[in-house]
Specification:
This protein is of the alpha+beta class and about 325 residues long. The chain has 3 domains: about 100 residues, GTP Cyclohydrolase I, domain 2; about 130 residues, Urate Oxidase (Roll), CATH 3.10.270; about 35 residues. The protein is built from 8 helices and 9 strands. α5 packs antiparallel against α7.
Length: about 325
């Protein structure tokens, strides 16, 4: 007896659907490293295809087949870039869903990096949220796309409140009859108090299938865009160093995004102008109930042109 394939029937309402699939599929993923042990991630995947108006439902079991097939092959033929793994799964989805013109795979993982405290040199671990996405098209004229991104936490110090405290310190020192040259020397060496935020920086870069945006570069840019990076384990000497460093490098949420944009242009000079860049910064305020947010979405070419005009004094 042949069982009916209800999904292949015509739907009562014939409308195209942009994405149909499964979300939050947990898989163990192995990403190889040359001459080192591979990274092992517990990752969440979302897998989608588009659905034409004449098909009632997608065969979702094919998504799992494509996913497992690629993961098993990765054991024998190592994958070095996680977005390439997503790209391969997306291509396999198109092979299995013959009615689809587009397939997309989204991957989310937590990445553990080793860090050493700046003064005591104690080793600790930091977590980074990483994201990968890939889109494959059946139309050979359309190039496959892939995205890699990361989000991590640092600290920012508010420039506005710090300037207020600087003025206050100057007034008090003047009342104590401290000479102006001594005041200037003191204020140049000792950063003033201000309020801090735990900042969350985010960068994603979308490129054509032929290019790679190294994840370690993205992580480094985010870390160095804030007033200071943070560590899980600190001794007193480390705490003093980080506090002084952060207060010597105060930044608004907007400053962080602009710093990241400048460094992306510098570090990814090999990528084409049509690479799409998304940069975000969210600062969790310490003296307000709200958060501060800034974002820039642009092609790499647009960012290059803006920075070029700024250097030439055209802005």
């Amino acid at each position: 007896m042949k069982l009916p394939d209800i999904q292949a029937h015509h739907p009562d309402i014939q409308i195209n659907l942009t994405r149909v699939g499964v979300t939050n599929v947990k898989k163990l993923v192995q990403v190889a490293r040359k001459d080192k042990r591979p990274y092992i991630f517990i990752s969440n995947f979302d897998l989608f295809v588009d659905l034409p108006e004449n098909i009632k439902g997608a065969n979702l079991s094919r998504n799992f087949e494509a996913m497992d097939e690629v993961l098993e092959e990765a054991i024998d033929s190592p994958v070095y870039v996680m977005e390439d793994l997503c790209s391969e799964v997306a291509k396999r989805l198109l092979e299995r869903h013959e009615y689809a013109s587009r397939a997309e795979v989204v991957m989310r993982s937590e990445y553990i990096v080793k860090r050493r405290a700046p003064k005591s040199n104690i080793q600790c671990q930091s977590s980074v949220d990483i994201f990968a996405d890939a889109v494959a098209f059946r139309d050979a004229k359309k190039k496959s796309l892939k995205m890699i991104g990361a989000e991590l936490v640092g600290i920012t110090a508010c420039p506005c409140a710090q300037e207020i405290m600087r003025e206050h310190a100057m007034e008090e020192l003047e009342k104590l009859k401290v000479p102006d040259d001594v005041i200037d020397k003191f204020l140049s060496k000792v950063p003033m108090a201000t309020h801090n935020q735990r900042g969350r920086g985010f960068i994603s870069i979308e490129v054509h299938d032929d290019y790679i945006a190294p994840l370690d570069k993205i992580i480094k840019i985010i870390e160095e865009s804030m007033s200071s990076n943070i560590y899980e384990v600190l001794k007193r000497s480390d705490e003093a160093y980080i506090v002084e460093r952060a207060h010597s490098n105060p930044k608004f949420v907007e400053d962080c995004v602009r710093t990241m944009a400048k460094e992306v242009v510098k570090e990814f000079d090999n990528l084409p102008d049509d690479s799409m860049v998304t940069i975000k910064q969210l600062n969790e305020e310490s003296i307000h109930q709200h958060n501060a947010f800034a974002e820039r979405v642009a092609t790499l070419g647009e960012l290059r042109e803006e920075l070029k005009r700024a250097v030439n004094g055209e802005v």
